Predict the 3D structure of the following.
Amino acid sequence: MRVLILGGDGYLGWPTAMALSAKGHDVFVVDNYLRRNIALKTRSEALMPNPNLHERAEIWKALSGYSISVEIADCSDYRVLSQVFREFQPDTVIHYAEQPSAPYSMISFDTARETLNNNLNVTFNVIWAVLKHCPDCHIIKLGTMGEYGTPNIDIEEGWLEIEHKSRRDTFLYPRQAGSLYHTTKVLDTDLLWFYVRTYGLKATDLMQGPVYGLSTDECEQDERLLPNFHYDDIFGTVVNRFLVQAAANVPLTVYGKGGQTRGYLNLKDTLQCVELAMNNPIEHGELRILNQFTEQFTVSELAEKVKQAGNQVGLNVQIDSIKNPRKEAEAHYYNAHHSGLIELGLKPHYMSEEVLVQMLEQVNKYKYKIDSQKIMPRVRW
Ligand SMILES: NC(=O)c1ccc[n+]([C@@H]2O[C@H](COP(=O)([O-])OP(=O)(O)OC[C@H]3O[C@@H](n4cnc5c(N)ncnc54)[C@H](O)[C@@H]3O)[C@@H](O)[C@H]2O)c1
């Protein structure tokens, strides 16, 4: 297949590009280094070095023989994106190109505006470029489980059947996001649904939970091919922050009561899920929504898991609770359904002690670069 990956320099984009090129697909990646630039501005640089996209594509080609075409361009610029679609004619576009940090989106008017403009414009441009240049192209879009929030009822897979005054209909499951970033994902889904039902596009919206892990078959071949690993309060996910705190010998900082429950998945499983979505086509006029995670944990359970992995490698890990910088429920009901991807063939890689120990060992190699102050929350809402 001809696969266009938007956001190909990112944590998910780069491993996806290598994995799909290794399967023989014709892969084209676009990125404008938005994340690298925000990381520089906010002192949130990744722990491990990541060569730029052209360099990584060259390293990968030298190692594997597979080519990945690279373009450094802004997908929120319609003329640029439109030209890429017109010339490359993708069978599938995988849209990762968004500003993905909730705290960054909550710093100020400017960062909120930047997040809103960037994320909505890229999605809108993708929709129009597909409509204009390749209406058969399957749009695979990364959404987030955060779109649903933490409702006091089971979370269904995208849709909810409602009976009202003895009549029934099916609607998008109600969404109530906890940050402006997550709200842009809700708006993305609405845009997709409007254009799918009006013009018959084909789209899969993957409601993904937080991803962890650094290891994939391709990334393991050369340290320079590792995806980005952020551990600060802006880009670092809770798993990364805890692992780095464990390695740095400072207490793991649980926000508030630690009962915040979310669905997590291994990076290897993101790659599987995206490939499964790609290889199981849908009809024109269908918006397929799949909840993309494999197991759910509270923040306190995650802290315990990291503590146990740390003890395994001789660290003495302590856990602290700090004031929650976010407005979110700290103890709540959470039961999210996620059978769609399993039915398509997903074989989960769970968060075992071995996986966490492997990540800790990788972090430990760069221990000298850790600035544990960067992990403490700088943004509150
Ligand atoms: N990583 C996770 O845990 C997670 C969980 C749920 C959803 N997601 C979603 O998955 C997608 C990828 O996330 P990620 O963790 O790889 O983030 P990332 O920031 O590492 O990757 C996103 C990439 O998109 C690029 N980008 C952003 N705007 C762009 C634009 N206008 N033009 C060109 N490139 C642009 C960035 O420079 C970056 O390299 C995002 O949409 C994110 O919201 C990620």
